Please model this.
Amino acid sequence: MSTDLLDDLQKTILTYAAEDALKLATRIVKEGIDPLEALDAMTLGIRQVGDGFNKGELWLPDLIRASEAFQAALPILMEELTRSGKERKNSGVVVIGTVFGDIHNIGKDMVATLLVADGFVVQDLGVNVAAERFIEAVKEHRADLLAMSALLSISAPEQRKVIAALQSIGLRDTVRVMVGGGAITQEFADTIGADGYAATAPLATALAKTLLDKR
Amino acid sequence: MHRKGFVRRFKALEILTEDQIEEIHKATLDVLWETGIRIEHEGALKVLEKNGCRVNYQGNQVYFPPRLVEECLRNCPSQFQLTARDPKDSLWVGDNRTYFGAAPGMTTVDLKTMEPRVPTRKEMYDAVTVLDALETVDYIMQYTPYFGFEGVPQVMAMIETLAAKLRNSTKFTAEGYSNDCEIFTIQMFQAVGADMFISCLPSPPLTYHRGSIEACLRAVEAGFAIKVGGGGMYGGTAPATIAGAIVTNNAELIAPIVLFQLIRPGTRIIVYNFNYPQNMRNGAPVFGAIECSLHTAIFNQTWRRYGLPTWDDSGEFSSSKGIDFQLGYEKSMNTLLPALCGGNGISVHGAIFGELTYHPFQAILDDDIVGMIGRFLRGVEVNTETLAIDVIKAVGPIPGHFLNREHTQRWWKSEQFLPKAADRLTYPEWKEKGKKSALDYARERMREILETHRVSLPLTPSQEEDIERIIREAREYYVRKGLI
Model:
């Protein structure tokens, strides 16, 4: 019974069925199935989608819709996990968002999805995220990695601001920072003191792993 | 006095029926009233509310009543002048006239390696000189030719680029907005007595950021024109269907037009198209896609109905990273089609990949593309003289020919377009002259222009002083703000 439900949950990710994912997660919690197993099933699903995308068999709409199904079921499972007092093994905790003054979410969503597929715990703050919110989230979630996106040349300087703010409150050494987005270059990333820059979403997940391995 | 551009002598290409255009119009009104547009500018929201829009201040959401929309569209002038600092270079925008102009690039292309890199100051000034010299360049866009040059801080890029354009060219040019730079660029235009427009850019879907609206309000209050445009990516920031993307795009464009007409009735508005399919692999726009021209066709048809001049900026780029075959066909198709569809301004010269790269060398090649298209737009005159009945009678069958006729002498040069950087030699001639290609000719032409061309009307000493002062003040402003 529990295996069936877990299989079905995994399938909702592969068929991009967000509503069904939520329904199944709710049922799984109600029936007392280990939320860790449910999270593993979903991660397996999103990893399959990520692999398909990296192989060129799946496309951006597949990736984004699978991620939305994942996100739909996530909160209820996380809540149950917290209640049970268990900890989830993961590759690292990432706080991600598009900086203040910029509401482009596609690149950021791609990176977030591929990070989830690679076993990271991702706290997605969304778009137009003020520097203070990034800082709060890094503190609250004890993030290993902060990932910021900026598509506009006018919003790119926000990344500098966030890094400077981390420095001023003595948090800079606790967290790795990676930046990306259409307006960003390696040179820019270097000048603002980021730990890394990646030009594409698949490169960003590889970078995340490298940065956290270096710790 | 204004530049001639090219006057289209035939009906514009239309791909939808009147009924279909009406459906698009109704869908647009529906989106404006039912879904609304998010405008993150409290002052703008107040003006819109006072004039009959529903406003939800919490979400910065504005809902536009159809009657107000129709009234404000009617208040937009359908033709108007954009004054250049040398009157001979002013533009008369609208009707069946098409202007072509230069398009932007963040960086230049190193012709040896074909890699993009930041241009030097000299390369910036030289690129402007080439644009000033090219006959088919009627205007120079914002961020054009480059976003800045070596040694210029990012916040000063647009200001320093504008200075280069005003010093080395008399052609009409425009500016964008970024970190209040429009405060200074507006002063620069006023100092040289030239018109300009600022681009009003939505952040699709259906959203305007404060910066975009604020910059345009500054320009509207100073009496300048506004170029409202931009657009989404099909399947990303706009519906995946072109018809749906037209609807969201129209709604996005109409919202600020209503605002500007309420604030200053009769404000000169140009609408422009900058829509692309989304690359479903990496999320980037697909430059050089044929769908851009499909969109442009409908865009022109729709806005002709509204009576506003249109500008087409989606065909200026290619997905190719270098000056090659793909660049040639993508740019040609997406320049020709908007021209046939009746675009009043088409940005083309110099741009290579996306907005990433520009090169004067490419601008020279594009000069020929535009020349060919312009020749097509001019069409064919049919009258007694051009039907040439008398000459045909006089010449008769072989051994008669037309080469020795005064009629030929009189007509051939205006009938035939003569490209300046194309290879048109016979095979033996081509071999003998060193097997040159269009690229070789373009390189020679660039050298020649840089050696011989001088701007027709240099800035006066007092204008030059003003420009220097404004640049200085801008620097001080950004130092104070901690941005330099």
